[in-house]
Structure formats: structure tokens, C-alpha cells
Amino acid sequence: MVKSKVATKSGDVVALLSAKEALVLEMLLAVNRELYGLEMVEASAGLLKRGTIYVTLQRMEEKGLVESRKEARTEPEIGIPRRLYRASGLGARAFNEYRDRHQRFSSTLAPVGG
Predict the structure, then answer these.
(1) pTM
(2) Pairing state of beta strands 83-87 and 35-36?
(3) Taking Cα atoms as reference points, which of 49, 35, 48, 45 lies closest to residue 87?
(4) Does 114 reside within a domain?
(5) What is the pLDDT of residues 24-33, one digit of tens each?
(6) What domain count does the chain have?
(7) What is the domain range of residue 23?
(8) Counting Cβ atoms within 10 Å, is residue 8 exposed (0-12), middle (13-18) or buried (19+)?
């Protein structure tokens, strides 16, 4: 079942945040600048793939987690302009809550064999 509702509160988004979306947000927030989709693929150590990054980014933009803009191009350049992505305020809040929940959950687990 695909959820098409765009969440308006970070808590709503955290419930819908996938591991890939969390990784994308973590990367965007860590560098504190805009990134191209393929930059994220290259920096992900194989966790993000060329074939799925733009589908993921589009879904994240629809949820309000990231914002994008077309790259400024000089006049003689041809081809499709690339898009630059950055985390939105909602995306930053959602990632911080996701990370905090993950850390709280991890800290409550008993060590294996202990």
C-alpha cells in the first residue's frame, strides 16, 4: 500500500521515513550544502543506486523532506539542467527525530549473549 499523504508534522514523517530517505537526509545535513543526486550515490559507499536515487528524491520532495532547484547554466550549454537538492526544515526535523528514536531504541536492547 502506497501512502500518498504529505505529512505536515515531523512526527508524521518519521513514521514514514525509510532507511534510504534517512541516509539521504543524513548526507545532505552533514555537508550543509546542496548536492546532486549522483554525488549522493558516489558518497554512499554503494547504499544508494543510480537507478533509484531520483525516484527516492522525487518522493522525498513530495513529502516535503527535500527541496530542489535546477542548476544555473550558461547560455551555450546544451542538455537537461541538473538538479541540486538540500534538506528542508521539515526534513532536518524528521531526520533528527528519526536519529533520536533509533538511538533510544538501540540503547534499550540487551547485549546478545549477556
Answers:
(1) 0.78
(2) antiparallel
(3) 35
(4) no
(5) 999 999 998 9
(6) 1
(7) 10-70+82-101
(8) exposed
